[in-house]
Write a structure and sequence with these properties.
InterPro entries: cNMP-bd_dom (IPR000595), cNMP-bd_dom_sf (IPR018490), RmlC-like_jellyroll (IPR014710). With about 190 residues, the protein is α+β, with helices and mostly antiparallel strands. The chain folds into 2 domains: about 1-115, Sandwich (Jelly Rolls); about 135-190, no CATH class. About 50% of the residues lie in helices and about 20% in strands. It is built from 10 helices and 8 strands. A 4-stranded antiparallel beta sheet has the order 1-8-3-6. A 4-stranded antiparallel beta sheet has the order 2-7-4-5. A hairpin with a 5-residue loop joins strand 4 and strand 5.
Length: about 190
């Protein structure tokens, strides 16, 4: 719980009263490697904070292939946020890529706290600005303009994440086949 509060305070300082209210709605949850945390088609009811482990956020294409959109390491917030906001079933799955320990909190109860606690609302704004605008915008542009090789190098530059991913996770994230990924890796070694 303290890791979650510490991470929230990095975005905006929360009062003791707000932190006490958050403590009441959070609960630790553990999931084993390959266990689904959220299944596409289900309603997303929770936000998650990753204490330990690694999560994958993906959807299936029409042929049933996994397409990873994002990975969430320690100290990350994870949810099917669009599904929560729109109150629709999620288009995405969230899976434990390693054994994970999460802090889980109800989206409904969190929204109630955001209305009651101004500092929590300011945290939410700061978080969304940094992670859904500043961080996400370059990713969207890169998908349109960068080659798979350039995106591979960018992923490779984040060694803490890269070393934890399997080759099929990387290929899926880049939108290439395992054979194409092998060619990219071979070309970069030369």
């Amino acid at each position: 719980m303290e890791k979650l509060l510490s991470e929230m305070n990095r975005y905006f300082p929360l009062s003791e009263q707000t932190m006490a209210a958050l403590r009441k709605i959070c609960q630790p949850k553990s999931f084993k490697k390959n266990e689904l945390i959220l299944r596409a088609g289900d309603y997303a009811k929770y936000y998650y904070f990753v204490n330990t482990g690694l999560l994958g956020y993906y959807k299936l294409d029409t042929a049933g292939n996994i397409i990873y959109k994002l990975f969430f390491e320690e100290n990350s917030f994870c949810a099917s946020t669009a599904a929560i906001i729109e109150e629709k079933p999620s288009n995405f799955n969230i899976v434990a890529l390693e054994d994970v320990l999460l802090m889980q909190y109800s989206a409904r109860l969190f929204r109630e706290l955001v209305i009651q606690h101004h500092d929590l609302a300011l945290f939410q704004i700061a978080y969304l600005e940094k992670n859904w605008v500043v961080k996400k915008e370059p990713l969207e542009i890169n998908l349109k303009w960068e080659s798979a090789k350039e995106r591979y190098l960018e992923l490779y530059s984040n060694q803490s994440l890269f070393k934890r991913l399997k080759q099929h996770h990387i290929a899926s994230y880049l939108g290439v086949t395992p054979t194409q990924l092998s060619r990219i890796r071979k070309e970069l070694k030369q």
